[in-house]
Amino acid sequence: MNPPKRPGRRAVCLLVLFSVWWVAVATVGFSAETVSSEPQVKAAFLINFAKYADWPSNAFEKANSPIVLGVMGDNKVSEELQKVIAGRVINGREIVLKRANSIDEAGACHILFISNAEQQHTPTVLDQVKGHVLTVGESPEFLEKGGVINLVRKDQKIALEVNLTAADKAQIKISSKLLSVATLVKGKAN
Known about the structure:
By secondary structure, the chain is α/β, with parallel strands linked by helices. The chain has 7 helices and 10 strands.
């Protein structure tokens, strides 16, 4: 009588590989449901910038005036902001969302997000916006054009780049906590 055949080495390897594949698929499937979308991540960054930036007192009409967060050109980010902004208070100031459809409206914001859809207008907007506006973009040349913070995609994540010279020109101080997570910091603060 022949002893029962043991599974061959190849069969064992295939079984192990299948098991690893199954665990990987199950894990990725699960984590994909919990991962935030790019507009959600950008909206979270925009809201939190208010915690890590200091505007001069004359940037606000009153001590309790809201922080106006403006968006030019990206409805998906606006929609995400609308979902999470209601009742949000940072440093004693309510956060108010504004669609900035003109340079005048953009200049009335404290934080202004200029999406890629408005890339051709970015140099004009940055040149015309005067005062204490923390400008945030998402295009490769945003910092070179004079923007303060750029949201860039690196290694499947959103990373920050900061232009301290532009922040200084806008009279906005960027917290060292925010600078410590930036992948690129250009210029120096005065």
